[in-house]
Amino acid sequence: MTAADSSAAAAPTSAVPTLRPYQREAVARVVAHFRASSEPAVVVLPTGSGKSLVIAELARLARGRVLVLAHVRELVEQNHAKYEAYGLTADIFSAGLKRKEAGRQVVFGSVQSVVKSPERFADGNFTLLVIDECHRVSLDQKSSYRRVVEQLRRQNPSLKILGLTATPYRLGQGFIYHRHHRGMVRGDDDCFFRDCVFEQPLRLMVKQGYLARPERRDMAVEHYDFAGLATTESGAFSEAALNRVVAGSRATPGIVADIIARAEGRLGVMIFAATVAHAEEVLGYLPQGEAALITGATEARERTALIAAFKARRIKYLVNVAVLTTGFDAPHVDVIAILRPTESASLYQQIIGRGLRLSPGKDDCLILDYAGNPWDTYAPEVGEPRPASDSEPVQVICPECEHANLFWGKYDGELLLEHYGRRCHGLVEDAAGRAVQCSFRFRFKTCDECGAENDIAASRCHGCGKLLVDADDKLRDALKLKDARVLRVSGMQLEATVNGRGLARLKVTYHDEDGATLDEWFALETAAQRRAFQAAFLRRHLRAPGIGWKPATPEEVVAGRERLRHPDFVIGRRVGRYFKVREKLFDYAGRYRRAADAG
Questions:
Q1: How far is Cα 485 from Cα 12, in angstroms, rounded to an integer?
Q2: Residues above pLDDT 70, as percent of the chain
Q3: What is the Cα–Cα distance from 402 to 397, expressed in whole angstroms?
Q4: pLDDT higher than 60, residue 14
Q5: Which residues are in the Helicase ATP-binding domain (predicted)?
Q6: Under DSSP, is residue 99 helix (H, G, I), strand (E, B) or coil?
Q7: Residue 29: how many CA atoms within 13 Å on its side-chain side?
Q8: Which of 17-31, 325-339, 434-448, 507-521 is predicted with the least confidence, judged by mean pLDDT?
Q9: How far apart are the first and last CA of the chain?
Q10: Does residue 425 contact residue 178 with C-beta atoms inside 8 Å?
Q11: Phi, psi (deg, nearest 5) at residue 480
Q12: d(CA 435, CA 53)
């Protein structure tokens, strides 16, 4: 895509909307990216930041045909209206809007309608595809968005694809793009979108006064207990499971009463219920004549009327069940009450985004969470699912490229006690000058053939290509040997002591559940011995690997024992009268029970 001449296809100056500085920068970054590459790109803008205007400007500048897709008719309509604000005309292809036009240079369509009408787009020769709410693009080749992409690429292999979203992550996948313009890797290499070319952080939007300040409150007095709720295979909560928690809950009347009290003097309240039955119960406790309910089953005409009444402030409370999380714009909303667990950071951000738009008389938006959701308002996702409820985002500097990684982890005061990062997210240049991911791995498993360090979940070595020996196979083979000892490790003891010749040594003893032990001994007297200790022991045992902790004596190691973790299994082989540790298995996820799994 290239920028058109200022004289071409430009509307009169009075009709052209004014872009904010970050919107202009986003447009410029997209244009620069597509001049150099045809790889799919992403722009990340918070809810309420004006994605529609960025889309309109890009469509105006584009040479060639443009298709703009969204998954709900409200977004199709909004994006189309912003484009026509330039004084230009575009088509709409959406069954929900009762229009199926696809002849003009720019077409705004719903993905459901476009995928069902391939013949209308077979010879379209589109040069730019824009996908709003692009976090909905699946890795599944048979999904609606991917089928449309494949169809358009058959007509134009150089098709430029741009996605825009406020929430660039998918449940179960993590980040939807591979590289970030600030020089780091976020998602896996198989992500459909390759580059995030521009991101405007929510915190900066609030600081600059473009969005209302979110004031989150975790409601500890009255709340629902969703802690024991399990998700389905898709990662979502089932309606039946949700109903078991909220149906007839004694907490509901108190929660609704609390919402009403906290909303006194507020302008508009959106309540996100767990299920339809739950929403109907909540509605019954709200002031009569001041509240309405919208669900997926609400008839279209009634839904339109209820939304219009809410926007006109004829009703104050709007209860819904997962139907107003995108494409809904009511700037006066200044209270968001969350009465359901949100399975993903994306869904949580979409919910609170309904209340962050600016409006006269509105200073902030009160976020009332009655469901104990773990997501942070400004930094909801690190890239992988949160491994433990008490973990938080932590910064870890790569010892090789010095990139500041963001991982889940834990602090003990100022001490970074643990992190769950596997590989550095930094981008470095290879010999050909290409931006590639830094090769440093914080956690790894070593190939027995070539010694290369691989991801802990890898099945084949990235170095030599050989199949990596399965941990279960190692344990099974060792258990068959008479001269081997296998410990299901339940604890690790560190001791600063001396050996038989009176030399200072670190003794590491591994214990299993039945009292059996295996020992390792390390010398730290010379620089070479300390380097060997770092490679043979610390690199695998540190709970926060790569942080640069370099103890120089056995006493320092013992004093820092809280920094260390023990392996799940240790395999020893007999050497003379003693057993020598030959293999240690960390991050084990096989069929044998770990000591930590004992009930």
A1: 82
A2: 91
A3: 5
A4: no
A5: 32-186
A6: strand
A7: 22
A8: 325-339
A9: 60
A10: no
A11: -80, -20
A12: 31
Q: How far is CA 468 from the centre of its chain?
A: 29
> Which 3 state secondary structure label does DSSP give 165?
strand
Q: In what order do the strands lie in the sheet with 160-165?
A: 99-100, 91-94, 106-110, 65-70, 126-132, 160-165, 41-44, 193-199, 177-180, 184-185
pLDDT tens for 98-148 read: 999 999 999 999 999 999 999 898 877 899 999 999 999 988 888 999 999
- Give the model's pLDDT for residue 8: 37
413: left (phi > 0), else alpha (psi -120 to 50), else beta? left
Q: pTM higher than 0.85 for the full model?
A: no
Helix %, strand %, coil % for the chain, to 5? 25, 25, 45
Q: How far is CA 255 from the centre of its chain?
A: 30
3-state DSSP assignment of residue 195: strand
Q: What is the pLDDT of residue 374?
A: 72
Residue 258 to residue 223: CA distance in whole angstroms: 11
Q: What is the mean pLDDT of the chain?
A: 88
Query: Which residues, in sequence order, are CB contacts of 569 under 8 Å at separation 6+?
Result: 471, 475, 486, 487, 488, 489, 583, 584, 585, 588, 592, 594
* pLDDT bracket for residue 300 (50, 70, 90): confident
The two tokens of residue 515 are 């009292």
What tokens were used for 337?
A: 């009450």
Is pLDDT of 5 > 50?
Answer: no
Task: Give kind and range of the element (H or E) at residue 272.
Answer: strand 268-272
Compute CA distances 101 → 75, 89, 97, 399, whole Å. 17, 12, 11, 56
What are the b/e assignments for 540-551, b being 16+ CB within 10 Å? bbbbbbbbebeb
Closest CA to 415 of 567, 560, 556, 534: 560
* The one-letter amino acid at 175: F
Query: What CA–CA distance (Å, rounded) separates 389 from 467?
Result: 35
- Please write down the long-range contacts of 152-156, taking CB distance under 8 Å and 24 or more positions apart: 152/67, 152/121, 152/124, 152/126, 155/122, 155/123, 155/124, 155/125, 155/126, 156/125, 156/126, 156/127
pLDDT at 335 over 70: yes
What is the reported pLDDT for 12?
42
Residues 40 and 152: their CA atoms lie apart, in Å, by: 13
Query: How do beta strands 578-585 and 569-575 pair?
Result: antiparallel
41-44 and 517-522: which strand pairing? Answer: unpaired
pLDDT band for position 234 (50/70/90)? Answer: low
Instruction: Report how many helices (DSSP H) and strands (DSSP E) the chain contains, helices first.
Output: 15, 30
Q: How many C-beta atoms surround the C-beta of residue 2 within 10 A?
A: 12
Phi, psi dihedral angles at 410 (to 5 degrees): -140, 140
Give the C-alpha separation, 90 to 86, whole Å: 11
- What's the pLDDT at 48? 86
Token pair in block for residue 385? 């699912």
For the record, the structure tokens of 437 come out as 């991911």
Place of tokens 């540190």: 542
Residue with the two structure tokens 């949160």: 386
